[in-house]
Specification:
- This protein is of the alpha/beta class.
- The protein has one domain: Spore Coat Polysaccharide Biosynthesis Protein SpsA, Chain A (Alpha-Beta Complex).
- Helices cover 32% and strands 27% of the residues.
- Strands 1, 4, 5, 6, 8, 9, 10, 11 and 12 form a nine-stranded mixed β-sheet that branches. A two-stranded antiparallel ribbon has the order 2-3.
- Helix 2 links the parallel strand 4 and strand 5.
- It starts with a strand and ends in a 5-residue tail after the last helix.
Length: 255
């Protein structure tokens, strides 16, 4: 596999999961009785694809918790985990996803193809497939999940595709054009990493990556890769409980 780095986005404060996220970041919440943290699923997936250079973007409030988790992982695996720390200790101070990505690219002088994954992603597929698609076409690529329901699609970023190309993208539309929802997994070719700064300068919109995707697709060929396997977005206490219970059943109650 060609050289690629991974950026795990762990800079949020998950206010919708309070009070459990007062002292623990959402990405480190245990999933199921086995207790494996949310972020570890995506981490293990990219490592299984041969990516060993991983950057974790977090904030000053939770960096120590992530450093401890990372120390446990690197003891067992030949993986490098580097940190980018946003100077933010509360939700009001957070950088926002797009600004956080641009900050990480600048701070770590990233000059490789980059797969970006939001830390609250849980999925039953492997990113290997979307990486292979990207390597074949070398276009900015977004992983989508066919959620199968336009009513459910209203909660997410929704796209329509033609021959893999994104021809429309809307964040939380009232009337979704399809059931293809963004999984917050993105791959950017190294020669286009400057687009994040360009977007911030032009729009001043520092948070929603979906709006960045829409902006980019208006002027550049952006691809979508569709998965049909299960995907979860842990956005509330209710969905966290559902996922916790599901993964407990998968593990048959064994630690």
């Amino acid at each position: 596999m060609k050289i690629m780095k991974t950026l795990l986005l762990c800079g949020g404060f998950a206010t919708r999961l309070e009070p459990i996220t007062y002292f623990m970041p959402k990405a480190l919440l245990p999933v199921g009785i086995a207790g494996k943290p949310v972020v570890e699923y995506a981490f293990d997936d990219v490592v299984s694809c041969g990516i060993t250079d991983i950057i974790l973007s977090t904030n000053s409030r939770f960096v120590q918790a992530f450093e401890y988790w990372a120390s446990q992982k690197t003891e067992k695996m030949p993986v490098k985990i580097d940190f980018v720390v946003e100077d933010a200790s509360s939700n009001a101070e957070k950088f926002g996803a797009v600004k956080g990505i641009a900050y990480a690219i600048k701070e770590k002088k990233i000059d490789d193809d980059l797969i970006i994954i939001a830390s609250d992603n849980l999925y039953d597929f492997s990113v290997r497939n979307v990486i292979e698609h990207f390597n074949e076409h070398r276009k900015p690529t977004v992983a989508f999940h066919d959620i199968g329901s336009k009513e459910e699609a209203k909660k997410f970023g929704v796209a329509t595709l033609e021959n893999h190309r994104i021809v429309s993208f809307e964040e939380k539309p009232t009337e979704p054009a399809s059931t293809l929802v963004s999984t917050a997994i993105y791959i950017m070719p190294k020669e286009m990493l400057g687009k994040f700064d360009e977007y911030l300068t032009e729009t001043k919109n520092s948070d929603k990556i979906g709006d960045f995707v829409k902006w980019l697709a208006a002027s550049t060929e952006v691809h979508g890769y569709v998965y049909k396997e299960k995907w979860h977005d842990i956005g509330s206490l209710e969905t966290y409980k559902q996922v916790f219970d599901e993964y407990t059943k998968r593990n048959n109650g064994k630690r």
